[in-house]
Specification:
It is globular and about 60 Å long. It is built from 10 helices and 7 strands. The strands form 3 sheets. Strands 1-3-2 form a 3-stranded antiparallel sheet. It has a two-stranded antiparallel ribbon with strand order 4-5.
């Protein structure tokens, strides 16, 4: 059934659904931040930090002054949030793992990356073995990190690219920061609950679209 909505009401609805109206909580808790991320879908990560990191500014604009360490608690301690590639690198609810697993970035699809991974098997095997043995690693932990190759975006590290691809495929997950870089862990060890059944892609696409529309009012 089609409904007509006055433009001013549509604007108010969009602002409200993005949590940009209403009084902020007196004291911001991890529950407040978690609920915000669930409502708007994600917090986009951006290395630019003129005033503060983008994801922190998004939280501040909705909830008011808060302790940035609360986001770290949700990511690294409680693990109710995790970092994944939504439309961009983002912080997303852990409960949405199956949905994101159904919609990986196109360049991370095993059908299109199998040849790339095969050619670089000497990197993927030691990465996964090191993670299994040590719990978490960062790119700089590998001697091979110094090996670079030329791409259309300049010189890149094969180890860093291998870690990124394993991340996009959901096999590893950011498990903290070390000197500004990500530390990585095996996803099946990092999360306390096993991955739920992954929906078929058409079902996942519809669910993602519905959530996006709901978040925008």
């Amino acid at each position: 059934m089609r409904r007509k909505v006055r433009i001013e009401h549509a604007r108010r609805l969009a602002v409200a659904r993005q949590r940009l109206s209403g009084p902020p909580p007196k004291t911001v808790t991890t529950d407040d931040i978690h609920e915000l991320v669930r409502a708007i879908g994600c917090l986009q990560l951006d290395p630019t930090a003129i005033v503060a990191r983008n994801h922190l500014l998004v939280v501040f604009s909705r909830l008011g002054p808060f302790d940035p360490k609360l986001v770290d608690v949700l990511l690294w301690d409680e693990r109710r949030l995790y970092e994944y590639w939504a439309h961009q690198a983002s912080i997303v609810p852990t409960e949405d793992r199956a949905l994101h697993a159904a919609l990986p970035p196109s360049w991370a699809d095993p059908r299109t990356t199998e040849a790339w991974m095969t050619r670089r098997a000497r990197f993927t095997k030691p990465v996964l073995e090191r993670l299994a043995a040590n719990g978490s690693v960062c790119a700089a932990d590998f001697d091979e990190h110094a090996e670079k190759y030329e791409s259309g975006w300049g010189k890149r590290s094969l180890i860093a690219d291998t870690l990124a691809l394993l991340w996009f495929q959901g096999r590893i997950v950011p498990a903290g920061r070390s000197g500004g870089g990500r530390r990585w862990a095996l996803a099946d060890r990092w999360f306390s609950a096993p991955l739920a059944e992954i929906p078929d892609q058409p079902v996942a696409l519809r669910e993602a679209a519905v959530r996006s529309l709901r978040a925008l009012g």
